[in-house]
Amino acid sequence: MSNEKQVDSGRRGLLVATCAAGGVAGLAAAGAFVSTFQPSEKAKAAGAPVEVDIAGLAPGEMKTVEWRGKPVWIMKRSPEMVAALPKLDAQLADPDSERNRDELTPEYARNKHRSIKPEILVAVGICSHLGCSPIDKFQAGPQPSLPDDWLGGFLCPCHGSTFDLAGRVYKNKPAPDNLQVPPHMYLGDTKLVIGKDEKGEA
Q1: Facing residues of 73 across strands?
Q2: What are the backbone dihedrals phi and psi of residue 7, each rounded to the nearest 5 degrees, phi first?
Q3: What is the DSSP secondary-structure string of 45-85?
Q4: How many C-beta neighbours within 10 Å does residue 154 have?
Q5: C-alpha 92 chain-centroid distance
Q6: Cα(41)–Cα(57) distance, rounded to whole angstroms?
Q7: What is the DSSP string of the chain?
Q8: For site-directed labelling of 134, which of 21, 29, 31, 118 has its Cα 20 to 30 A away?
Q9: pLDDT in tens, 149-182
Q10: Is 86 part of any domain?
């Protein structure tokens, strides 16, 4: 007869069940702890690329979408608006978008119209001075707070900075830089993606 103590089957079952329950609870707690390091669905959505249909955009019209909590303007410029852009170089602080170019102007937008397609402006609608949102002043000609030879663009109502229809800031204004051109690309003639380009997501 063996001297080893025999554990009855009832106690053995209880011991196995207790260990299993403890293991499951431990895994659940570890999973909850690890998940706190993952971005929330809201955070993911805030940085996700945004698709925009621009099929109905007429010349001189603009629509605004939100990307990463910022307003992004998509404006369709008329042929006359595009033709006027090079004429403004002498009045602009940074006509060729040289300042902070890697941060503000993707390589494919380093041109006079600061865009992939000359007629479509894509810009973050936040003034580079103190973060106010400029208002559109597309109508050319004399207007309050604007020069008599105004050709259309944007006016920051906070401190008077003005930007042309390519988002380039005029000289001697509080805003130090042009408006940011966000990463973007076209999925087709009328489908635009903000926050993603050929290099991937921003």
Answers
A1: 64, 123
A2: -95, 125
A3: HHHS-EEEE-TTPPTT-EEEEEETTEEEEEEE--HHHHHHG
A4: 24
A5: 24
A6: 31
A7: ---SPPPPHHHHHHHHHHHHHHHHHHHHHHHHHHHTTSPPHHHHHHHS-EEEE-TTPPTT-EEEEEETTEEEEEEE--HHHHHHGGGGGGGBSSTT--TTHHHH--GGG-STT-SSSTTEEEEE---TTTS---EEE-S-S--TTS-TT--SEEE-TTT--EE-TTSPBBTTSS--SPPP---EEESSSSEEEESEETTEE-
A8: 118
A9: 888 899 998 888 999 999 999 999 999 999 999 9
A10: yes
Render pLDDT for 96-150 as a digit per residue (tens, 0 to 9). Answer: 999 888 899 999 999 989 999 999 999 999 998 877 889 889 888 888 888 888 8
In sequence order, which residues have a C-beta less than 8 Å from that of residue 76 and are 6 or more positions away?
54, 57, 58, 59, 60, 61, 62, 119, 120
Dist. CA 153–CA 175, nearest whole Å: 15
Mean pLDDT of the chain: 82
Tell whether the model's pLDDT for residue 30 goes beyond 70: no
- Note the residue count of the chain: 202
Q: Are 48 and 66 in contact (CB under 8 A)?
A: no
| Residue 81, amino acid | M
Active site residue 159: yes
Q: Is 202 within a domain?
A: no
Range of the domain at 135: 44-197
If asked whether residues 104 and 144 sit together in one domain, one would say yes
